[in-house]
Design a protein that fits this description.
Length: 151
């Protein structure tokens, strides 16, 4: 992976922390996540410590630090979905998969993400698995949905 990251880093000036976010964005775009090895390489390149990098990246929820699972489950926590019970659905998914948003299950089957709004609020509460939108979600429907994607 380091060679690939090297190809990304040559586009940026060495030792300039101002490029931290675009560098991390480029890495995530290429690999789907920012690995701990990538954090070390970016730290060497920019002069930022791993703590600084995690701190900056954690501020932006777009970054993930674990390898994405086979399926990505996104639960909407926007206002329309929230008032229709998306919080309970998220809790249930967290419990069933034993992960928090931003994490991947131990079997690498599912990644869980929380999203601010998918732009289809009329279907609230909304859960998106991979690219498929599942609207008017309920806890029993969410459980069935997870089973369907479990191989
Ligand atoms: S608030 Fe959930 S889709 Fe808009």
């Amino acid at each position: 992976m380091e060679n690939g990251i090297g190809d990304i880093l040559v586009r940026y000036p060495r030792g300039d922390r101002g490029f931290l976010i675009p560098i991390l964005q480029a890495i995530q775009e290429s690999y789907g996540y920012v690995s701990s090895e990538a954090v070390d390489v970016v730290g060497d390149f920019t002069g930022a410590s791993p703590g600084e990098i995690f701190g900056v990246a954690s501020f932006y929820s777009q970054f993930r630090f674990t390898r994405p699972g086979k399926h990505t489950v996104k639960v909407c926590s926007g206002t329309a979905c929230h008032v229709r019970g998306s919080g309970r659905i998220l809790e249930l998914v967290e419990h069933d998969l034993q992960v928090k948003p931003g994490e991947t299950t131990a079997d690498e089957q599912f990644s869980l993400e929380r999203v601010a709004c998918f732009g289809c609020c009329a279907l609230a509460p909304v859960v998106v698995v991979d690219k498929t939108v599942h609207g008017r979600m309920t806890s029993p429907k969410a459980q069935k949905l997870l089973k369907k994607y479990q191989d």
